């Protein structure tokens, strides 16, 4: 899709992150679809209460309609997401590997790739971007500010597809943050828990400075 178009956004995950993003996107004029766990009861009622305006969809409906797909499920549930359906779609990996929640996953612990590279390998035809993971769900709405604010928080966008990064950067700006282009997907390791940019309120220049050493090491 062209970066000037306003995409339909689909969110896998109706938890705190997914619904916070749905509210921000709806407030910014985006058409939002959301799907949750098959075991989650009364999803329509939940979304109507916590993310009014978002449309509940089945996974198949979401994939059919959405231009951009945000994956915001617990990392340990990543394999339950239908990655095989994401050919040519822009997919935002907003997940974090949290051993206290997910347990220690030996295959992940031993893998030198960033977690987003691991997820991208689930479907090499998907246009995977890492973003929206390095701030808490409670900060998404609290820290959202109008463009030009001197205190506006920056969020990084990393991915191997430049056009996909540009699309997500526009969405990030629309929902109230400065977008920083962090380069290829391998640089996403700087955005993961325990790494420099994770969980910190940073300006665009501060975030660029933290990402630069990672970009150098990944080159």
Could you list some keywords that capture this structure?
disordered C terminus, single chain, alpha/beta, 9 helices, eight-stranded mixed sheet, globular, 219 residues, 15% strand
Word description of this protein:
34% of the residues lie in helices and 15% in strands. The chain has 219 residues and is an alpha/beta fold. An eight-stranded mixed β-sheet has the order 3-2-1-4-5-6-7-8, with helices on both faces. Helix 8 links the parallel strand 7 (154-159) and strand 8 (178-181). The radius of gyration is 16 Å and the shape is globular.
Based on DSSP secondary structure assignment, what is the total number of beta strands? Answer: 8
What's the helix count?
A: 9
| Helical amount | 25-40%
Overall residue-averaged pLDDT value: 91
How are the strands of the largest sheet arranged?
3-2-1-4-5-6-7-8
From the N-terminal CA to the C-terminal CA, the straight-line distance is 28 Å
Radius of gyration (Å): 16 Å
Structural class: alpha/beta
How big a fraction of the residues is strand?
A: 5-15%
For the report, how would you describe the main beta sheet? 8 strands, mixed
Q: Which stretches of 5+ consecutive residues score pLDDT under 50? A: 215-219
Order of helices and strands: EHEHEHEEHHHEHEHEH
**Overall 3D form:** globular
């Amino acid at each position: 899709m062209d970066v000037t178009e306003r995409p339909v956004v689909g969110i896998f995950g109706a938890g705190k992150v997914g619904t916070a993003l749905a509210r921000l996107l709806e407030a910014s004029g985006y058409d939002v679809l959301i799907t949750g766990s098959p075991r989650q009861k009364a999803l329509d009622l939940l979304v109507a209460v916590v993310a009014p305006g978002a449309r509940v969809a089945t996974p198949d409906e979401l994939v059919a309609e959405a231009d951009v797909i945000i994956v915001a499920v617990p990392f340990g549930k990543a394999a339950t997401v239908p990655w095989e359906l994401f050919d040519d779609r822009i997919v935002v990996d907003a997940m974090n590997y949290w051993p206290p929640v997910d347990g220690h996953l030996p295959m992940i612990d031993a893998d030198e790739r960033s977690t987003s590279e691991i997820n991208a390998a689930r479907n090499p035809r998907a246009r995977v971007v890492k973003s929206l993971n390095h701030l808490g769900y409670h900060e998404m709405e609290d820290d959202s500010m109008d463009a030009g604010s001197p205190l506006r928080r920056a969020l990084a966008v990393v991915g191997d597809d430049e056009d996909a990064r540009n699309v997500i950067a526009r969405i990030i700006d629309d929902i109230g943050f400065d977008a920083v282009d962090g380069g290829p997907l391998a640089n996403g390791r700087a955005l993961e828990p325990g790494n420099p940019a994770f969980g910190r309120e940073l300006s665009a220049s501060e975030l660029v400075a933290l990402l630069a050493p990672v970009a150098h090491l990944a080159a």
